[in-house]
Design brief:
heterodimer; A: 500 residues; alpha/beta; five-stranded mixed β-sheet; 20 helices; 47% helix; B: 319 residues; mainly alpha; 69% helix; 1% strand; flat
Chain lengths: 500, 319
Amino acid sequence: MKKRWVSMLACVTVLSTLLSACGGDKEAEKNAAVADENTPLEITWLNILHTASPPTDTIKKLLEEYTNTKLTFNWVPDASKEERITTALASGELADIVTLTMMTNSSVRSSLKSGLFWDVGPYLDDYDNLAKIAPEVRAAASIEGVLYGVPFQKNLARSGLIMRKDWLDKLGLPVPTTLDEVYEVARAFTEDDPDGNGVDDTTGFGDRNDLRYSSFKTLSSYFGTPNGWKVDESGKFTPEFDTQEYMDTLNYSKKLYENGYLAQDFAVTAKTDQQQQFAQGKTGIYTGMVDISSLRTLAQDLQEGLELVPINKISNGDGEYHIWSEGSGVGGLMAFPKSEVKTEAELKRLLQFVNDLIDEEAFMLMTGGIEGTHYEYDENGAYKVLNTELWQADVQPFSSSRPSEISYTLKDANPEKQLANELIRENDQYAVFDPTVPLDSATNNEQGTELAKIITDATFKYIMGQATEADFKKAVQTWKDSGGTKITEEYEAAYKLTQK
Amino acid sequence: MKVSSITAPSNLNLEKRKGSAFLTAVKKYKLLYLMILPGLVYFIMFKYLPMGGLVIAFQNYQPFLGITGSEWVGFKHFIRLFTEPTFMMLLRNTLILFALNIVIFFPLPIIVALMLNELKNRHLKNWIQTIVYIPHFMSWVIIVSITYVFLTVDGGVINELIASMGFKKISFLTSPEWLRTIYIGQIIWKELGWSTIIYLAAITVVDPQLYEAAEMDGAARLRKTWHVTLPAIRPVIITLLILKIGSTLDLGFEHMYLLLNSLNREVAEIFDTYIYTAGLKNGQLSFSTTVGLFKGVVGLILVMASNKLAKKMGEDGVY
């Protein structure tokens, strides 16, 4: 510290010409630190925050100790990541590590492709944990064959339904296995007074203003809709919304909506409101199995006798199961901008840091916290959080920053959560991949997000009875005419190259 | 984006004068000219220099390459803007909402100010004024959230009321036909009281002798309002109208963005929200600059035209 002071003073006294020299000194200092494995490496990390507030320093300190680093987090709230990350990319105000989760966002893609970040592909095999990243995952995380960061490894497919088991039991309904049965549950939850209060105040399906992470996309994969795009043997691409299965899902959701089995204002409902509705016993079906523990926490003291059941296997009647995969198991990239990470030596130490985070000890710190303080293993060896509030404050924000969520499996002491975890792993077998994840389309990078709005709007309108089938087809045609056809052609061309 | 401030008047017609005359004037009023300096520097630094950034509207701007390194594409983005089907939608929505603002919202504060002026009980008047100001201090997030809680079909107060009276629930939030009503209603609720301030201030300076004279001529209250108060505050009204027209296409980004959803987009998407989603969220900086530039130019033309019109009609105008 003192040394710095002196050098700063020197900088101030000697004017402009020497300023650059001082900058150079700092750079040299940094390089020296990088070369010397024993001094802690200073790392800044632009990271996404999935909780309401950033974590306390407890875990950070232990992580620093374990990885021999000095960490500075720059947290970006998940809700504003699009603005913040795109602005950061545009202004070049980045950190040593940048968490990029929106891989389809056009500015993220164009900045990756423009060579703003290091290509880490050639280095991965030098690190024991990173070397284990499967070739499929590497391929899925690459753009035109180049890997611009360490992929966050996630389960292939995490989606599924959560239902009120106590309501099912009360109405004498089995856990549904087909779409028809799900429909029947939604009907019964709405009409047959599942909470037994004699008032018509329940709705079957809760939902929100999002087609992807809420019910629609999951239902659509139960119908067998391709994930994003369908590719036939000849390499012809068809967007998912141009398929019969998508139309079937539309009609199914429309029927749910018309009869009032689907929350009527879902198109303007936020995720927190949807969870609140579920926790307050207003709705009985929720999409997204990972939220099972947070739903239970929310419903504490509100719903007596609440029992939840996660469900992953729903067929459209033919006994086959499908579930859409988010990014083919890639949750984004930890990317290293060349503007911050100037030398290969520095990059190598950063990769070492990421590698260390995948070690079991670091993994447990970021997952459960400190044994005995935040969590413990019960007599069956099952993992149990001791103090939820403390865990939420100290540990939870780190859990979504883990470079790999799949390297270790914990047995959860909460049977509902444990079941949900098992089902998510089981989903691997039925996962439907999006063929365009490793492909690149210039038009899609530029206009894709806006074009997607045409389809999203039309889908909402169709479900809510504000558009006919002809209107929907017209929207699909508009999509094609405004650039969709071009996107299709570009994907087909890119696909052909990978098939060779 | 940046150009929204283009209409800020920097009323300096310095160049028009003859050079030598100008110099003597500067010498004569040294101190006064010195006082202009900070303002001048401010405008150059923060208003005019950033306008240089507008050149990216003619580029395929890549932040990492910078303005000098990015590829020049001429009018490509303008062509895209004017040929995209969304353009007509944006223009229509913006103009309709602007018209609603002028026709419905603009006269209301004047009427309220005149009504308040007629209140003879000072305490009551102050009390009412304070009450109507308060909504102005709430953010749009709060106002839109309150509206959501009131209007939602899934248990909203208004809809429960409608249902209890035996009518069918109305999905206010997802019907395009309700959007404009809600939009202008929220503006009235939030800004009505606040906007009366300036008119009330203008009314207080009306010469009392005029009222006395009118009274002598046998004018009743309404007559006095019509023939004395209203003409007296006419310049203020005209000035505010011109300023309002200048910000034609500024309809309140935050407000509209919060109201916008997939079902009302056809009537709710305006230039501001479009610039935000296209530019900041999708990273099409050049294209959204083009949209912003267009917006700014339209605003500038309108304010100049209305100013000219006002002067023709014998008013002062804003400059």
